[in-house]
Amino acid sequence: MRRKNEFLFTKDSTRFYFPWICWLMLFIATFICGTGILIYNSLADWQRGVSESLTVQINTYDSEGRYREDQITADIEKALSILRTTPGVIGASVLTDEQMSDLMAPWVGADVTITSLPIPKLIDVAVDSKHPPFLEQLKRDLAAHVPEATMDSHRIWLTELIKLSQHILKLIFFILGLLALTIAFTVSYTTRATLKIHESVIKLVHMMGAKDFYITNHYAWHNFKYALTGGVLGTICAVPMLWIIILFFQDASASIFQMQFSVCQWILLASLPVLIALLAFITTFKTVLSYLRRFL
Predict the structure, then answer these.
(1) pTM here?
(2) 186 and 286, same domain (yes or no)
(3) Which range marks the domain in which residue 115 is found?
């Protein structure tokens, strides 16, 4: 037996294609939002890396290729003294030969003796993320007292990478906004079309005593149901695609990208169909109410 709440939509074609539109929009939105979350997680990790630590290198060989055996220890002590007295620096320590061997093993192999390679001495510096040091002044101090010392250069390209990621996130938010506007426009257009189709029935129901709120609420819940159905299917179809991306990049880029979601982020993705359904409900409610007040 047909429910009384469906009497306006028995011959309405929107009940067939509107859920598919929502499916497509939510598939795209979930995929884009998931990608944005992965970029955000990586961005937060990169920012911590930039703000919480840096590296100072001290050359062990001079410009003519001679080993600086006598000057290395003195340069290390000067550099440590400057670093440890710099505001914003929490601590500084020289990497041992064992730590350097572990660091270089993926490139030179575990059997190579680290002391036989012309690599600089590294000082790992811990930085206060809330009150970081003034890097330009620190760089000048090191250059004045330890000419053979240089600060790590990877912070420069990492900062540029962070800026690029921030622009990508802005683009993702812009695309999500366009998708939301598209869904709102689609809901408004299809609702106005069905109002025209069922105009005679609506007038009859209105003459029989139905209030504007009853008709408006009826339309709004109708679109809410179909938007939620299509949205859930779209999100479910997009999740395996995100898993494929995570599994594909997890091993190859574990040190660069954070290819995982937290529980709250999974909940956010799961809530997208509800948010879109609420958008459809509000848009339909305002569209129908405006129509009834204008023409009835």
Answers:
(1) 0.63
(2) yes
(3) 60-147
